[in-house]
Design a protein that fits this description.
By secondary structure, this protein is mainly alpha-helical. It has three domains: 48 residues; 123 residues, no CATH class; 49 residues, no CATH class. It contains ten helices and four strands, in the order αααααααββαββαα. A two-stranded antiparallel sheet has the order 1-2. Strands 3-4 form a two-stranded antiparallel sheet. A hairpin with a 6-residue loop joins strand 1 and strand 2.
Length: 253
């Protein structure tokens, strides 16, 4: 009897917390198990105004966490908070949209949201997005926490996409012209100049016999032309000597 009463009290307390976090009515119903009419009655009893209340369907697209570098960073921090608070189970939940919401997870999600807003009061992430992120981390093929490909930072990645495998800081360095590697960041301009000078040095040190065929033909052409010119000049000199000897014999005769 006490367990049933205590659980019912927890449901009402969770509903009050979610209403304070401006959660949608369907989200409150899914986590508390209360009916829509009961939530409406509680709002009226607690004198909660409808001003600022979110209406319409809850967000369902995971692309919201990858639309900007700041959102990706905030999603990574929130995912760590969810791991610490035990919101995300160790085993994946198929059809997590339906089977993930429970009373215990709803209470822990409120703890995550309240702690995150305490540390980051200017954040634009609302409670509904935190619920969506937790469900995405629980799905078998949706989101996962991984280490950045170039630094020890932890990021949220989309398992169905090959994009966004780097943290926002590493991508920013890459965008500003830096080649990012583990612990080394070399400017592209210096890397290119170093590569060009290395290629020039190799070209000067390379011997003719090791040169490609095209370059061998180019280097051999001037030598062949010089040999032909030498043969022609020798032939002209020989004809000149023969004419001189013939003219001498004609004079003596």
């Amino acid at each position: 009897m006490e367990d049933r009463i205590g659980r019912e009290l927890r449901r009402h307390q969770l509903a009050l917390r979610m209403i304070a976090h401006r959660a949608r009515r369907r989200t409150i119903c899914n986590f508390t198990g209360l009916t829509r009419e009961r939530i409406k009655t509680l709002r009226r009893e607690w004198q909660v105004t409808s001003k600022g209340r979110r209406r319409g369907p809850s967000p369902s697209s995971l692309s919201a966490f990858f639309r900007s570098a700041r959102m990706r960073s905030e999603a990574s921090v929130i995912a760590l908070f969810c791991k610490i608070q035990g919101v995300v189970p160790t085993e994946r939940i198929p059809k997590a949209t339906r089977y993930f919401p429970t009373l215990e997870r709803g209470e822990r999600l409120c703890d995550v949201y309240e702690a995150y807003r305490t540390y980051f009061p200017e954040s634009e992430v609302n409670f509904e997005l935190i619920v969506l992120l937790a469900i995405g981390l629980a799905e078998p093929h949706a989101l996962e926490l991984k280490v950045c490909a170039t630094c020890p930072g932890v990021i949220v990645i989309d398992l169905l996409s090959v994009k966004y495998r780097y943290c926002s800081q590493c991508e920013q360095k890459e965008a500003t012209g830096l080649q990012v590697s583990r612990g080394v960041a070399l400017p592209r301009k210096e890397a290119r100049q170093s590569l060009i000078s290395h290629q020039k040095k190799r070209a000067t040190d390379r011997k003719p016999e090791h040169a490609p065929k095209g370059e061998m033909r180019k280097t051999q052409e001037p030598k062949e032309e010089r040999d032909q010119d030498a043969e022609k000049s020798e032939g002209r000199q020989g004809d000149f000597h023969e004419r001189q000897e013939g003219s001498k014999e004609g004079r003596h005769g």
